[in-house]
Design a protein that fits this description.
The chain is an alpha/beta fold. It has helices spanning 50-60, 73-81, 94-102, and strands spanning 2-7, 25-30, 35-40, 65-68, 85-88.
Length: 109
């Protein structure tokens, strides 16, 4: 399973960004290999449509689960249409949010 999380800084010890489309990075975690990879959000400073571009990034990573505090209305439709489940992030670091998801402790949006 692939989990994607928008982050403030890079790595599993980063806090989750509250700005999905304008986050600095995305942390993509594979539950099978237990490895995560950090990607820079190259669209964060765009004039518009950054949420849609972030949604496309999530889908292109073959994401099964997106963990984020919130998602805009256009993005949520795109992500859900791709059968990606969205869960509400806590105010904790990425690693803790992944653990909470795996323990069924996060609320589905």
């Amino acid at each position: 399973m692939i989990i994607t999380i928008p982050t403030v800084t890079s790595g599993e010890k980063s806090f989750v960004s509250d700005r999905f489309g304008r986050c600095n990075f995305f942390y993509v975690y594979d539950t099978e290999t237990k490895l995560g990879k950090v990607y820079t959000n190259i669209h964060k400073d765009g004039q518009g449509g950054v949420g849609v571009k972030a949604s496309e990034f999530v889908i292109n990573q073959k994401t099964d689960v997106l963990i984020t505090p919130r998602v805009g209305s256009k993005s949520i439709d795109i992500i859900r249409d791709a059968n990606v489940k969205i869960y509400e992030a806590t105010n904790e670091i990425v690693k803790t949010n992944i653990e909470r998801f795996l323990n069924n402790e996060l609320k589905e949006l």
